[in-house]
Specification:
Elements: H1 60-90, H2 95-121, H3 123-126, H4 129-149
Helix pairs in contact: 1-2, 2-4
Amino acid sequence: MQGTQPPATAPSPSDPGFKLPEESASPQDTLPKTAPDTAGRPVEVVPGMEGAAPVTDTSNRDLAIGAAVFLVLLVIYFFVRNAYVHHLVVRRVAPSSAGSAGWMLFVGLGFLSAAAVLAMINASKFLTFAVMGPLLAVGVVALAAALLTGRR
């Protein structure tokens, strides 16, 4: 039997059947790049802006939607004012006092809703004490005046 040798295609015990990939010049070249190019640069810090939120620009679309919502609320508040005045007149409050209380209610609700709409439009720009303070103060004072005027 002369043909007892194994076929040439069969792997020998020392050949595992696979080859390792050739090594590149640096192992980092084959890894995916996860950091941006600016990762090695120093970070710039603007003095005096450590805790402040970045000011973002409000688009015209946001302002238009906010204005439309505010106008719808004012129309609703006008009907609420009329109902409040009628309620006070039925309770035997003088019509002039009832009318004044109704307008104070309208003004108070208007100022409070203006503060809410501005806060929803752009909180980083309008949610400051200089903007919200006067709006909320006038709104709360007008609501308190409406309740006190309507008690007479």
